[in-house]
């Protein structure tokens, strides 16, 4: 639904019956995530660019399952990209980096929102933007106390 996929396409793509899709829509309607409208049309009631609750069950699942699988690639295919850069940075620099990542996330979400290519040309894709205070544990025994 976040990708504005019609129920019939969801049923076809995921091998659900349209009745099963409708049952899930009814649950989401009761949770006030969507508004189920006549003709099984859906109006999203949450911001398309929401974030999962920090430390919540969905974010834990993403961390435990999805990120492990996502980052297990070597990112060498033509349509893949991976950047990693670590450095020491001040609190002000960390805040600046956070703002840059927030803007990049908004820009990525805008690209996805504007993408109107035919369904047959679409492929699953994901992007990760991450920032945190972090030192690799393997270097800890080299640090001076």
**Overall strand count:** 2
Q: Tell me which oligomeric state these chains represent.
A: single chain
Largest sheet: 2 strands, antiparallel
- SSE string, helices as H and strands as E: HHEEHH
The rounded Rg comes to 20 Å
Helical segment count: 4
Number of domains: 2
Overall morphology: elongated
The low-confidence parts are none
The fraction of residues in strands falls at 5-15%
Mean pLDDT: 86
Write out the strand line-up for the largest beta sheet, numbering strands in chain order. Answer: 1-2
Span from first to last CA?
Answer: 52 Å
Question: What structural class do helix, strand and pairing data support?
Answer: mainly alpha
> Portion of residues in helices?
40-55%
Task: Provide a compact summary of the structure.
Strands 1-2 form a two-stranded antiparallel sheet. The chain is built from 4 helices and 2 strands, in the order ααββαα.
Walk me through this protein's architecture.
This protein is mainly α. It folds into two domains: 1-46; 59-145, no CATH class. 41% of the residues lie in helices and 6% in strands. The protein is built from four helices and two strands, in the order ααββαα. Strands 1-2 form a two-stranded antiparallel sheet. β1 (34-37) and β2 (41-44) form a beta hairpin. α1 crosses α2 (18-30). The longest helix has 24 residues, at 91-114. It is elongated, with a radius of gyration of 20 Å.
């Amino acid at each position: 639904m976040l990708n504005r996929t019609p129920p019939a396409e969801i049923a076809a793509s995921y091998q659900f019956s349209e009745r099963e899709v409708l049952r899930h829509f009814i649950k989401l309607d009761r949770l006030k995530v969507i508004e189920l409208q006549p003709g099984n049309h859906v109006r999203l009631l949450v911001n398309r660019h929401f974030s999962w609750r920090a430390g919540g069950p969905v974010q834990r699942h993403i961390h435990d399952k999805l990120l492990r699988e996502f980052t297990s690639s070597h990112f060498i295919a033509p349509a893949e990209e991976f950047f990693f850069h670590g450095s020491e940075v001040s609190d002000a620099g960390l805040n600046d980096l956070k703002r840059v990542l927030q803007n990049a996330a908004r820009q990525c979400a805008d690209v996805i929102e504007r993408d109107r290519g035919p369904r047959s040309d679409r492929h699953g894709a994901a992007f990760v933007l991450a920032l945190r205070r972090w030192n690799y544990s393997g270097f800890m025994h080299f640090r001076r106390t």
